[in-house]
Amino acid sequence: MTWGPRTLAAQWTTAVPVLAVVLLIFTWGRSLAPLLVGLASVVLAVSVLAAVHHAEVVAHRVGEPFGSLVLAVAVTIIEVALIVTLMADGGPKGATLARDTVFAAVMITCNGIVGISLLAASLRHRVAVFNPEGTGAALATVATLATLSLVLPKFTTSRSGAEFSTVQLIFAALASLVLYGLFVATQTVRHRNYFLPLTRHGEVVDPEKEYAEGPGRRTALLSLALLGLALIGVVGLAKGVSPAIESGIRAADLPQAVVGVVIALLVLLPETIAAVRAARRDRVQISLNLGYGSAMASIGLTIPAVAVASFWLSDPLVLGLNSTHMVLLLLTVSVGTLTVVPGRATPLQGGVHLVILAAYLQFALTP
Length: 367
Prior knowledge:
Blueprint (H helix, E strand, L loop, with lengths): L4 H5 L2 H16 L6 H29 L3 H25 L6 H29 L2 E2 L2 H20 L14 H25 L16 H4 L6 H35 L5 H11 L1 H12 L3 H27 L12 H18 L3 E2 L1 H19 L2
Antiparallel strand pairs: 1-2
Helix pairs in contact: 2-3, 2-9, 3-4, 3-9, 3-11, 4-9, 4-12, 5-10, 5-11, 5-12, 5-13, 5-14, 6-7, 6-12, 6-13, 7-12, 11-12, 13-14
């Protein structure tokens, strides 16, 4: 594959981010007609795919596990921006938007991305092989973050309902940042080998050989700039079409929580595509880095962001999960632990995770 800047410039992935930003400029702050909503939706979807491409170019330049981290953080920036902007415009119904979106992201990543990656790899290579040390550390961090941020608010007594007090919210935000920062340091510096792909014989893949044919510095910088444009376009256009999404959900008489599911499905599409590609190349560890890393970034970066935003928003910030979601979270962590410990998985484990995701989606539509 040729990675030269001229080749990259000739691809559609170069034009799409620019088109998305131009369309955003012309539609910002306006009520969109149905035709414009359709156009914005198409450009938004293609911009997501362009973001995947440019994130992967950057990932090939920096290698693993930095590549997975780049894509996870990029996607989470989209999620945080969408949540905060929709909370600012949503009124009282935005009180649960952060909770619904973050929990949807956790379920989609820990069951959807992990499940489909294990299934794709094990069907093609018979058994999916990964490093249980690194993956187990990631799952433990996700479980801790989810419990501190989404479960405990339901049991505190300082505020009525499922809200944190100001002090508790500050603690949850700081704890999220500390745990996420500690994990990133572990993943990229101190125990980097735990997060690198393994061969069939359990040997760590040499990242220098894996990415020896990667893009040059100029191409990587161009892709980084285009990735930023694509993210701006996705965030802005998603905000523009969100009224149409909410109207459609209300017209279908679906719960408000479905808005969070739609946002999570949208922003996690790039990582899902990248994870499946890695799994089919027998690089399951990269897929799991993307899945659990995205769940971790979703909580570790979103909770602090919405905590800061809540200080100027007049509406309450409801973070506590209901009992059904707590059961699904407990099931996800328990099954995930049993999946991770052996370091090998068959299609059965992938199918189990996907069934849990299907159960979550079913209960989201019919609580």
